[in-house]
Amino acid sequence: MSPRLLALIPTAVAINLVVGQVASELALPVYLDTLGTSLVAVLDGLSGGLLVGTLGQLLSGMLRGYVWLAFTPIQWLIAALAALAAARGGFGNTSRSAAWGAACGVACGLTSAAISYFLFGGVTATGVTAVGALFRSAGFSLAAAVTTASLLTDILDKTISFILLGILLRSLPLRILGRFPLAARAVGR
Q: Which of 13, 89, 106, 175 has the fewest CB atoms within 10 Å, counting from its CB?
């Protein structure tokens, strides 16, 4: 692990915590708590992303409630998919970033729905629970409401996150990208 990565990890964990908390406090129907995980997975690869995601979820669990610990596998899934997207040039333009983000959102939404439904009866983050409640009031069963809400919000969340990450990566100077070969490949340089 490079000194550069060691300096980046606490920053990425802080990004996850702060942005995630802001989204939660505003009751947004998105999480935005995986930006740091995705960033490190793209800059350094899967192992760095896994570390950031795990540390971020542990701290979320300690600061915001144990419920967040159950969603640690979501962070791992995001790290894996962000690293895969980077290896395949998935951040070369906005449409590629959006497509990879949407695919990640589907995978995470389905996984998150299962965790939310089976462990917490469909109640999790404020904004997502509100979307689920909207579907329940429209006559959806609890399982269908939780799954639909998780899918819609995760697709939106991960698409936004991957688009933002792609914009950030493409705006980096070549000398910075040169220090992170996976990130350079992610944007096709």
A: 175
Domains and CATH numbers, the chain: 3-186 (1.10.1760)
Question: What is the C-alpha to C-alpha distance for residues 174 and 35, in angstroms, rounded to an integer?
Answer: 22
Burial degree of 4 (CB within 10 A; 0-12, 13-18, 19+): exposed
Beta carbons within 8 Å of 47's beta carbon, 6+ residues apart: none
Q: Which residues 6+ apart lie within 8 Å of 110 measured at CB?
A: 147, 150, 151
Residue 73 makes CB contacts below 8 A (sequence gap 6+) with 111, 115
What HEC string does 5-28 produce? HHHHHHHHHHHHHHHHHHHHHCCC
65: region left, alpha or beta (phi > 0 left; psi from -120 to 50 alpha):
left
Would you give per-residue pLDDT tens digits along the chain (189 residues)? 678 888 899 999 999 999 988 988 887 778 899 999 999 999 999 999 999 999 999 999 998 888 889 999 999 999 999 999 999 999 999 999 999 999 999 999 999 999 999 999 888 766 777 888 899 999 999 999 999 999 999 999 999 999 999 999 999 999 988 889 999 999 998
User: What are the structure tokens assigned to 67, written together?
Assistant: 């419920």
